[in-house]
TrEMBL record:
Signal peptide residues on this chain, from the entry's feature table: 1-20
Domain Cytochrome c span(s) in chain numbering: 52-141
Keywords: Heme, Iron, Metal-binding, Signal
Official protein name in the record: Cytochrome c
Length: 182
């Protein structure tokens, strides 16, 4: 009954759309602009093949990121990427929050850079370039060694320093006792 009512509503909507010439069918090109690619989860699901190296990342960073985030990730004119100090405290200035003292999962770095950077030219980096950049930024934050390979297997196993700071709030714990953070 409910489904029938929904169907009737949908058909009525179509009829109205046709009558008033509302909207246009979406084209494949337009849909492609909103293609967000698979989400990368903390356990590594969604990560593509490829491998990142610090030296390569340094080169790409200088070319595509340094103008906005500073030569060493110190954050000028935009967000700081290389962090000091750790751990953050209530007195830490928000501009000091960065990858090494605030990001809880290394996989998010991959997902975010691939999806959102370089600002204004999002979506132009290849998966391989993103891996190189992640390798460079983790190294610059003192989280990995210069020769740590960054790939589908290794990235999810890297423990971020800020992970210790993350906990479920008491209310969430009470309501969902079975819930644990990845
Ligand atoms: C044109 C300027 C510009 C360029 C170039 C640029 N970014 Fe950004 N970046 C930004 C801005 C602005 C933000 C903040 C976006 C927001 O908060 O929505 C940001 C945020 C970030 C963040 C999140 C910082 C945080 O902790 O919140 C990361 C990581 C990042 N950029 C990495 C990169 C990398 C890697 C590159 C090079 C491929 C790059 N960006 C190139 C402007 C830029």
């Amino acid at each position: 009954m409910f489904r029938r009512a929904l169907l009737a509503l949908a058909l009525a909507g179509l009829a109205v759309g046709a009558r008033y010439q509302l909207g246009t069918p979406i084209t494949e090109e337009l849909a492609a602009q909103y293609d967000l690619r698979p989400v990368v989860l903390p356990d590594g699901r969604g990560l593509p093949p490829g491998e990142g190296k610090v030296a390569e990342g340094e080169r790409i960073y200088a070319e595509k990121c340094a103008s906005c985030h500073g030569a060493r990730g110190e954050g000028y004119p935009f967000n700081r990427l290389v962090s000091e100090p750790f751990p953050i405290t209530p007195d830490t200035e928000p501009v000091e929050y960065a990858i090494g003292n605030y990001w809880q999962y290394p996989t998010t770095l991959f997902d975010y850079i691939r999806r959102a950077m370089p600002f204004g030219q999002e979506g132009t980096l290849t998966d391989e370039e993103v891996y190189h950049l992640v390798a460079f930024l983790l190294y610059m934050n003192g989280i990995t060694e210069a020769d740590t390979p960054i790939n589908q297997k290794t990235l999810p196993t890297i423990r971020m320093p800020a992970r210790e700071l993350l906990d479920l709030d008491p209310e969430t714990k009470r309501r969902f006792p079975w819930l644990t953070l990845p």
